Amino acid sequence: MVKILKKELLVPNIHFMILESDFIHLNAKAGEFVVVRADEFGERIPLNLVDWDERSASVVFMEVGTSTRKLGCLKTGETIADLAGPLGKPTEMVSDKKILVIGGCYGIGAIYPVIKAFKNNNNKIITAIEARSSFLLYWQEKLKEYSDEIFEITRDGTKGYAGHIDKFLNDYLSKYSVDMVYAQGCTYLTYLVSQTTKPFGIKTIVGLNPIMIDATGMCGVCRVIINGETKFACVDGPEFDGHTVDWQNLLTRRHIYITEERRSLSFYECEKYG
Amino acid sequence: MPEKIVPKKTPMREQPPKERIKNFNEVPYGYSPEEAIAEAKRCLQCKKAPCISGCPVEIDIPGFIKFIAEGDFKAAIKKLKEKNVLPAVCGRVCPQETQCEQVCTLAKKFEPVAIGRLERFAADYEAAQGEAPIPELPPPTGKKVAVIGSGPGGLTVAGDLNRFGHSVTIFEALHKPGGVLVYGIPEFRLPKAIVYREVDYLIRCGVKLVLNFIVGKTATIDQLLKEFDAVYIGTGAGLPWFMNIPGENLNGVYSANEYLTRSNLMKAYLFPEYDTPIVRGKRVAVVGGGNVAMDCARTALRLGADEVHIVYRRSKQEMPARAEEIHHAEEEGVIFDWLTLPIKYIGDENGWVKEMECIKMQLGEPDASGRRKPVPIEGSNYISAVDTVICAIGQGPNPLIPQTTPDLKAGKWGNIEVDKATMKTSKPRCWAGGDVVRGGATVILAMGDARIAARSMDEFLRTGIW
Ligand SMILES: Cc1cc2nc3c(=O)[nH]c(=O)nc-3n(C[C@H](O)[C@H](O)[C@H](O)COP(=O)(O)OP(=O)(O)OC[C@H]3O[C@@H](n4cnc5c(N)ncnc54)[C@H](O)[C@@H]3O)c2cc1C
Ligand SMILES: Cc1cc2nc3c(=O)[nH]c(=O)nc-3n(C[C@H](O)[C@H](O)[C@H](O)COP(=O)(O)OP(=O)(O)OC[C@H]3O[C@@H](n4cnc5c(N)ncnc54)[C@H](O)[C@@H]3O)c2cc1C
Ligand code: SF4
Ligand code: FES
User: Fold this and answer.
1) Residue of A214, A231, A236 with the most ligand 4 atoms within 8 Å of its CB, for mutation
2) How many helices and strands in chain B, by DSSP H and E?
3) Cβ(A130)–Cβ(A102) under 8 Å?
4) A153 touching B (Cβ < 8 Å)
5) String of b and e for A259-272 (b: at least 16 CB within 10 Å)?
6) Cα(B375)–Cα(B353) distance, rounded to whole angstroms?
7) What ipTM did this prediction achieve?
8) Average pLDDT of chain B, as a whole number
9) pTM reported for the whole predicted model
10) CB of B62 closer than 6 A to ligand 3?
């Protein structure tokens, strides 16, 4: 059992959770993730590590289906069944570069350790966070600490730049040059970012989120096609060059269990509230 | 000595095929005490018992069988446990027909003694008596050992070293201990409760178990060696192989590991009570011919498939699966497509597999392994409809530890290299054994390696000489 040291709702549907752990910090690096299981009946789901210290590991997650809903219902002081990690390859470090870092939904949390690491490695950081509306943006203050500049983007125009990420990117990249783009968030966001930067020829690293189980290279469910070659995102990634990803395959594979996921959620809600 | 030889094994009652394909309960029921005694009495108690040398861990087979014949089941299990800490597991999954039973004196003319079934009986009898008593342990030596992986190999090393008085901690990547015994082999062949019972016993004996700890990531071997005097690597062969043919990444195409892990470890057969889903295909093709393929095919049937095909590129004679497993699969209605090789998977407009293209094979000259090599018959291609494909063509060692331990020597396929006499690796204070050394092998061979390593580790821990 793993104790929840703190659980907080950041914005509607997105939660922050600090979990007790005395060994994640031993080797944790920016860009890595953990696997959690809410309870004995739970799925193993991967979540990016957003922070860690000698006694804890933190995650930010968005409620989408049963597993994240279960986590979302838990409170400070309660427990989850399992926490394992860190997993995946850490973000490849660079220095003396100007990097545009983009985060959407849970990715706003997920980019936090990455910009910290980039910043500490002597890079210039332009951070851009995006959401549907202003009330869904969070952690601006935390991100500012390691950003040279920060942009807020809202699709409904209630704050900052109005529009979607592709529009912002097109505008920004037409005016300014950057050495690299880095993005975390849902598959659609990372896809859109990769598509938009491609004509500019800017190296674009994205965190992918295929379905996973063991996350140690044992099952092969997380396979993604990179440059025509099959890779296991949990051990070869999860970060890849966005211009080499077979997005169609990733989007398709992400939906293998869509019928079952709906059934699972309605089963869970009936059990819990029905 | 029996007066008259009974030519056939005492049959073991089983769930009828029509029933059992609707549930995940264990297929054979096991012997009653009367059946066990009757079977044990068939044993000739040979002076030079060939069965013993047929057993990779050299169980005193006539010894334990004699006790069963006398009705002293407690003494039987005690005798078994002198050499084998997982008799309930081995009695169920060991390939006895190619080991002890193959060389049994009776096998020359009749059916061999059902050694495996008797082993299972003795172990189950003990379990039915309640918690096994804890043996007295020697005073602690003060030495600490880390065992990586809780498969049959890791559990055996842990048990042995604990009995020698060393302090043992097992580190396991997954959230449940047991290795392939829990994530791979299905419930209907090996109930998980049996594995957990053995793990509980070790814990009651003082072995520590740390789950969710991925050595190589959570901590490296070098980090562990700062705290521990010795390390045993028993991480198995958990890297799934694919054939690299078109369409392998379509939805509905599984690796055997994924399919079995979902069903066994994550209990997807009880979805939605358990949260992990699995595709319940109607026309399922399983590619491969080993135990893993049989397990996938039989799981698919139980998940509600109308038709399950085993697609294997050689013929029945060459199939590596245990005879009993092939037999069980046949009884349950699995269809065997011998001499057939898939060459392409074809998807529908939504990215789901809908057909597979196969080519027929014929057997040519024997290859290096001595098996006749399958050769494609040109122009024999055909297409068959499938909605689920499970690739069970084998697996290799997981590279995580070799990748993060530069001075650990590993072969081209990731197998850790060891000295066979001691199971020492190239890295001081590190031993390895089981599937991570051999590639996919068997439970008993992993346990045999573990036993050799434990002896060598004990010697090192006492003398300090590497
Ligand atoms: C390496 C890695 C890191 C990840 N890091 C995070 C993280 O830090 N925070 C986080 O919230 N999520 C993260 N994810 C995604 C997260 O694992 C999934 O959201 C989670 O598994 C969903 O489980 P569920 O049972 O709640 O939903 P499911 O029932 O599995 O899914 C419900 C529906 O939502 C869709 N869906 C699932 N996840 C997403 C998503 N992220 N965006 C859009 N649609 C989705 C599914 O396709 C499905 O249709 C990460 C994934 C990977 C592979
Ligand atoms: C489906 C299937 C059916 C089989 N049927 C039979 C059968 O009928 N009879 C038979 O004799 N054999 C059978 N086998 C083979 C047998 O199960 C294996 O040979 C045996 O389990 C190997 O034991 P092991 O201890 O070496 O490793 P495993 O059982 O593979 O255990 C390794 C353990 O190490 C853990 N691990 C891996 N990497 C790390 C890490 N970095 N850090 C921490 N932990 C780690 C894994 O999670 C796992 O729990 C079958 C195998 C499969 C897959
Ligand atoms: S070889 Fe067969 S008959 Fe002889 S002792 Fe062993 S089990 Fe008994
Ligand atoms: S999640 Fe199983 S191999 Fe990546």
Assistant:
1) A214
2) 18, 16
3) yes
4) no
5) ebbeebbebbeeee
6) 26
7) 0.93
8) 93
9) 0.94
10) yes
